[in-house]
């Protein structure tokens, strides 16, 4: 039997998942991290003499803790590079010299079954390669810009997945040649193709999907029969108008003769959203998190504070699902500023944001132009 090793690529930044400062491979599904689920399939396949896990340095400890759940398997660890391709090459270099077959797997593809792993390895042993691919079931169009130029024969279209398994010599040569040429590919098979080799397809299925977007977490939960907990939060904030202040709402400077008074930039909208998020997570409110007696927060942008709030939310194990907010002020009119406000908040919170504005029809302190008020409601989910 060949000496077979695996490389588990777990060094991504999870930007499309929208969970700040958290690697998605450590999200839990049914009480197990994504990385653990992936490792379990590979260990239980009974095919491997060792597994290399490649992570960013900050995640090395978590990766080692996960690997410790499988004491029967030798593990090796490599540092993540600037690209996935660099990361895989780093992992190749830490594997034992006796490696004959290497399987490369995305850690976020945690529903890869043992049968697929075995079939890919058998293909690599016989032909030198075995690449998991799902045949397209959709009609495929060739486009340029927004124009459809041609309908392609979908019987010739396959969607590449992992594992991608190759002889160790071939995989190493492909990566080293790409590095020498300064070429960055989208997967390992593409690097092998550049050598004039035609990798062998091993048919997979849509169940072998990769966790990429927030919606994929729900899809994964449904596959293993688990639902994450949801919570709802409510936030309200009020600030008085004052001369000599800029009016900042939703991170946007609004043209106005007066601004709102506060220790920070007094962004009443962002403050209401922050309190809603903190409240949903059961965390102390903004007055305790960012006290107005702390000089660090004097004049600070509330968008920065919203970023800090998201970090606290992530540390508590939550992510926002959506935010709905209402601004109440008599003047100025802000309808034209709302699209930029939404964009600002969505870029930090990574969820749909809705903002509405209304006036009190000249009633009360807001109607008299003495202040502004904001209300926010959010839903957050356990991650």
Explain how this protein is built.
The chain has a 7-stranded mixed β-sheet with strand order 5-4-1-6-10-7-11. A 5-stranded mixed β-sheet has the order 15-12-18-16-17. A two-stranded antiparallel sheet has the order 2-3. The protein starts with a strand and ends with a strand. The mean pLDDT is 93. Helix content is 32%, strand content 28%. It is an alpha/beta fold and 383 residues long. The chain has helices at residues 34-44, 60-67, 84-94, 114-127, 168-181, 188-193, 214-223, 268-280, 286-289, 302-315, 338-349, 364-367, and strands at residues 4-9, 28-29, 32-33, 50-55, 75-79, 101-106, 129-135, 140-144, 147-152, 158-167, 201-203, 230-242, 247-249, 252-254, 259-260, 318-328, 353-358, 371-382. Helix 2 links the parallel strand 4 (50-55) and strand 5.
Count of separate DSSP helical elements: 12
Strand content of the residues, in percent?
25-35%
Mean pLDDT: 93
Distance between the ends: 41 Å
Structural class assignment = alpha/beta
Order of strands side by side in the largest beta sheet?
A: 5-4-1-6-10-7-11
Radius of gyration: 26 Å
């Amino acid at each position: 039997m060949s000496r077979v090793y695996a490389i588990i690529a777990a060094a991504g930044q999870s930007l499309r998942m929208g969970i700040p400062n958290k690697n998605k491979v450590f999200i839990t599904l049914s009480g197990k991290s994504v990385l653990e689920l992936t490792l379990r399939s590979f260990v239980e396949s009974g095919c491997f003499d060792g597994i290399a896990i490649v992570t960013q340095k900050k995640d090395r400890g978590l990766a080692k803790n996960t690997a410790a759940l499988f004491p029967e398997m030798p593990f090796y660890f490599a540092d993540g590079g600037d690209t996935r391709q660099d990361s895989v090459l780093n992992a190749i270099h830490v594997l034992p010299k006796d490696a004959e077959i290497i399987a490369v797997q995305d850690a976020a593809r945690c529903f890869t079954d043992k049968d697929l792993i075995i079939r890919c390895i058998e293909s690599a042993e016989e032909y030198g390669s075995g690449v998991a691919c799902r045949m397209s079931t959709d009609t495929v169009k060739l486009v340029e810009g927004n124009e459809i130029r041609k309908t392609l024969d979908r019987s010739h279209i396959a969607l590449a997945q992992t594992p991608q398994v190759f002889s160790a010599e071939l995989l190493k040569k492909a990566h080293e040649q790409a590095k020498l040429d300064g070429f960055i590919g989208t997967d390992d098979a593409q690097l092998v193709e550049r050598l004039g080799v035609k990798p062998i397809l091993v048919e997979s299925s849509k169940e072998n999907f990769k966790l990429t977007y927030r919606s994929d977490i729900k899809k994964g939960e449904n596959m293993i029969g688990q639902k994450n907990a949801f919570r709802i939060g409510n936030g309200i904030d009020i600030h008085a108008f004052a001369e000599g202040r800029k009016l900042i709402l939703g991170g946007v400077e609004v043209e106005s003769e007066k601004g709102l008074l506060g220790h920070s930039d007094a962004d009443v909208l962002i403050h209401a959203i922050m309190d809603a998020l903190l409240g949903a997570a059961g965390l102390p409110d903004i007055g305790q998190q960012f006290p107005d007696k702390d000089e660090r927060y004097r004049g600070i942008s509330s968008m920065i504070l919203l970023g800090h709030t998201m970090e606290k939310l992530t540390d508590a194990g939550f992510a926002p699902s959506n935010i709905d907010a209402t601004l109440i002020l008599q003047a100025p009119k802000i309808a034209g500023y709302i699209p930029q406000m939404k964009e600002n908040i969505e870029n930090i919170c990574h969820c749909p944001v809705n903002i509405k504005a209304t006036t009190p029809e000249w009633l009360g302190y807001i109607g008299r132009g003495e202040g502004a008020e904001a209300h926010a409601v959010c839903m957050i989910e356990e991650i």
